[in-house]
Amino acid sequence: MTGDDIDRRHRFAQDCAREAGAIARRYFRSREAPSTIEKGRHDPVTQADLEIDRFLIDRLAGAFPADGILTEETGGSPARHLWVIDPIDGTLNFARGIAHFAVSIAFCVGGRTESGIVYDPVSDEIFTARRGQGAFCNGQPIRVRLTDGPADAVIDAGYSLWHPAADYLALIGDLLGQGYAFVQNGSAAMGLAAVACGRIDGFCELSLKSWDVLAGLLLVEEAGGWTSGFPHGPGLLEDHRVLACAPTIRQSLQDLMPEASTLSGKGPLLSI
Description:
The protein has helices spanning 3-29, 47-63, 91-95, 165-178, 188-196, 210-222, 250-256, 258-261; strands at 36-40, 43-46, 68-71, 81-89, 102-109, 113-120, 125-130, 135-137, 140-141, 154-158, 181-183, 202-208, 226-227, 240-245. The protein is α+β, with helices and mostly antiparallel strands. The protein has a seven-stranded mixed sheet with strand order 3-4-5-6-7-8-9, sandwiched between helices. A five-stranded mixed sheet has the order 11-10-12-14-13, sandwiched between helices. A hairpin with a 3-residue loop joins strand 5 and strand 6. The protein is globular, with a radius of gyration of 17 Å.
């Protein structure tokens, strides 16, 4: 696959994300609460998730029929040329009427994320990254914030029900003990986009899937930040700890989450 082939997918994915976001926005702004199905405790899926999931699969498969597709709602399997999609990242926020959710689309080649799109339908902000070409918000370049240290930094510490509450409380205690401030906003894709554009200084979570983070991790890397990366190959279907931050606080956060640091985004990924 050539660079031009990837560029064409990168441009196409942005159009798809905007169209998918329009579907989410229509549901979000309607007066009726979206119907939900509980996949697990505090883990809903709405009609909007399912409609966007099908829309993106149809659009991408129609344009690039040889590519593989992996989504949160439909599943899939690793492939050499692979789309990894979360139709609505932050569904709990979405279902509760909280305007903090996003469409997340990543495209990977041979076990490496080459394109990442995170679209916030409410603010109409589209965050884009093409490997080696920088990160952007609505077409304008973005960079991570070079914080002076923990006392000057805000971390989005995502909460996962897949780990004991004690693990999360220990992480928060460690962050506070080092002098960090923290928030928990309920969308990994949005949290990573916020790191990439310097609104916050780091993001961490103890258990995430590939569709939650691949696009956002590339945003942070291309904006000059450091990330723990995410294993490709069979690892795409598994849960992993994730850490992303400004380089000035990398060591401090790695010390708090050493398991995440072993997945360094600068190291080799499993090829497919």
